[in-house]
Specification:
Blueprint lengths: L1 H21 L8 H16 L9 H33 L1 H15 L2 H17 L2 H8 L12 H48 L11 H29 L8 H11 L8 H12 L3 E7 L2 E8 L9 H30 L1
Antiparallel strand pairs: 1-2
Helix pairs in contact: 1-4, 1-11, 2-3, 2-7, 3-4, 3-7, 4-7, 5-6, 5-7, 5-11, 6-7, 7-8, 7-10, 7-11, 8-9, 8-10, 8-11, 9-10
Amino acid sequence: MKEYISLHMIALTAGYLLDLAIGDPHGIPHPIVAIGRLISFLEKKLLHIDEGSRDNNREFRRGMLTVATVAITVAVTVAVLLIAGYVIHPYLGAAVETVLTCYILAAKSLKHESMKVYRDIEAGDIEKARKDLSMIVGRDVENLDKEAIIRAAVETVAENTSDGVTAPLIYTAIGGPILGMLYKAVNTMDSMIGYNNDRYRYFGRPAAKTDDVVNYLPSRMSALLMVAAAGILKLFDRSYSALRAFMIWRRDRRKHLSPNSAQTESTCAGALGIRLGGLSYYGGVAVDKPYLGDDIRAIENKDIIRAGRLMFTSEALMLLICLTILLLFVLW
């Protein structure tokens, strides 16, 4: 058992470093894309909307079936790959685990996509900035001005510090790629069908609630890690403040309807001394989100970079914590 925990620690670290180095390689099939296709297939098969006679209970049950089907399919597929690798040879199993861990983490990809927006703003190309922003946010971007584009990019990096980076790292550390990929499957379902609108209100509710549950503790852990990260980064950039991050987190963390999404966004806003939130449009529908943080200074393009550094530092701290706990099991 200790040998496998040791190999798991090596694979976790190697997967983390691989993600930092290459991110999601283009041109190679990605497991999350396959999960998305499975979700779309099940939606087409199970969600039949007849406005004249919609059965809310039936849609809810089929939503539960979708969640269960995706979860079982993902868990079995990853388990087969992982077990086969370790049965053939422990080092092969560790190599498979490394690659899967790299796929699970998304720090490099998030940085890459957000930095596209940063460079567009630097070049003064607002139209291209809107286009690149649309790749990483769900809101309407057509009428966003420069400040709103920057704010949306910072909010996305802040929220995904938990959803795309630290939370999947936690689950992968606990249960290997099987649990890590299960988390990603839940997160993907929420992003695709977990909306409280006419189409998904009942069918997507099981996915949304499951996502709320699996993110409850990780989002709060991520927020506290961001506070610590702000303290470390303040040594190099006075723009950060750990004290302000903690105070704003305590004050604003429950302002969103979602129990989790404001956790890291409020911490980021406090750490940088900026205000996030406000009016946004989704599919032409206005959503007036509560403000997070104080408007101590005007948001600027460099805040996209600062939010990214906060994300990477938080991820490194989380990895260190996970490896320390795993090491204690090995030494026990």
